[in-house]
User: Which sequence fits this backbone?
């Protein structure tokens, strides 16, 4: 399995995330507390609201392009996202326009350019954003598919670091993809070790198990079944 295939799978997974909700959470953070009274910074809030609306439109077009898998459509969406960033780069939402542009570029197969744009997006994101570590993980995956071996190895090390970072509430994602990468290299035991780490992570919700934990458990089951068949 190529890294590009992994990234395409990653896109499908991320489409389930409510980006608009995350942007709204960021927008709500602009409310300032002073003397126990909440108040709006009128000009700033208006600017952020306009950026949020523009992002909603870009993301809607990105989803259509991703589902249609149209190269021409993805190219146009990338350009729209680039323009959206230029018009809103001084807002909290700005980096996410770049992230969408990078997604579109990667779907077109332009991994090196996607890596460059995603790096800039991550550099501008707040580490307090719920999406920060997800995009750091995606950046690592982009690096794994670079034609430059040094960049590729750097990406692998970054993913390993991300997977072990205590502040990362979404380390199960990096762990899962490290296992998938090892699996693609026929390094079954290493893949098993990564997925076992995913399995040991406590789900954020008691009612809904993390999809990454579920997928890791499925992979571990396949490995166990293969091992039994070899014994027989």
Assistant:
């Amino acid at each position: 399995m190529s890294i590009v295939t992994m990234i395409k799978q990653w896109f499908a997974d991320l489409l389930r995330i409510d980006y608009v909700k995350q942007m709204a959470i960021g927008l709500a953070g602009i409310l300032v507390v002073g003397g126990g009274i909440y108040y709006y910074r009128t000009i700033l809030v208006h600017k952020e609201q306009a950026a949020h609306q523009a992002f909603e439109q870009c993301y809607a077009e990105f989803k259509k392009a991703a589902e249609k898998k149209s190269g021409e459509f993805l190219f146009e969406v990338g350009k729209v996202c680039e323009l959206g960033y230029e018009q809103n780069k001084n807002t909290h939402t700005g980096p996410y326009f770049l992230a969408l542009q990078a997604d579109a570029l990667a779907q077109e197969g332009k991994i090196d350019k996607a890596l460059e744009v995603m790096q800039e997006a991550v550099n501008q994101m707040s580490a307090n954003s719920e999406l920060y570590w997800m995009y750091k993980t995606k950046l690592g995956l982009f690096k794994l598919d670079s034609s430059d071996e040094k960049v590729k190895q750097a990406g692998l090390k970054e993913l390993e670091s991300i997977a072990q970072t205590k502040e990362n509430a979404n380390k199960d994602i990096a762990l899962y993809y490290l296992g998938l990468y090892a699996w693609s290299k026929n390094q079954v035991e290493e893949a098993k070790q990564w997925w076992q780490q995913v399995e040991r992570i406590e789900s954020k919700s008691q009612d809904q198990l993390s999809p990454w934990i579920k997928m890791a458990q499925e992979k571990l089951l396949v490995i166990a079944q293969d091992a039994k068949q070899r014994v027989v």
The first helix runs from residue 3 to 14. Residues 3-130 form one domain. The longest strand covers residues 32-34. The beta strands are 32-34, 37-39.
